[in-house]
Amino acid sequence: MVKLGKKDLEKINLNFYDKKNKYMLIKNKCRQDNMKMRKQNKNVNIKNKKALYNFFVIEKYIAGLKLLGHEVKSIKNNNANLENSFCKILKTEIFLLNLYLNKINKISSTNSTSRNILLLLKKKEIIKISEAVKKFALNIIPENIFSNKKGLLKLVIHLAQSKKKYDKREIIKTKEFERFSKIL
Question: pTM for the complete prediction?
């Protein structure tokens, strides 16, 4: 419970002994503090920078993540890395593997890099993705983790095809050509 002094109450022109208004003021102050905490947590944006460089993106999906409490805290503090992570279909579910999470406390003794994280998708989407992976030999690649308006963590995954070395070289050449053309 937040304690308010006489100065705080005088600023709002309330009588100090009016208990009803004091209670409402405390309640509103608590709500404002909660809103500040929610705004701080919305800055989650963890990216896999090499995903778009190494793969041709075909289709995009947004999936929820089934996480433990200490994993959510470390992701919201931007202490996660998607560099070597990938998605795999096991039975009728899609899992995120090799997500690196820094430990925040000594309490979280489990090594969460070895844990498979379940992706929350609709059944039709899972079937569509699994058929595409089997039929066309595509990869499921995580691109970034973000938090939505409600504060829930979401993962952007792509159905993608891997690039060959010569494809990467061509892309680099075109980018360099564009840079030089802008200079001249």
Answer: 0.69
CA 117-159-169 angle, to 5 degrees, is 115
Going by pLDDT thresholds of 50, 70 and 90, the confidence category of residue 49 is: confident
Average pLDDT of the residues in 139-165: 92
| % residues pLDDT > 90 (the chain) | 40
Which of these, 156, 161, 157, 154, lies nearest to 133 by C-alpha position? 161
Neighbour-count burial of 142, counting CB atoms closer than 10 A to its CB (0-12 exposed, 13-18 middle, 19+ buried): buried
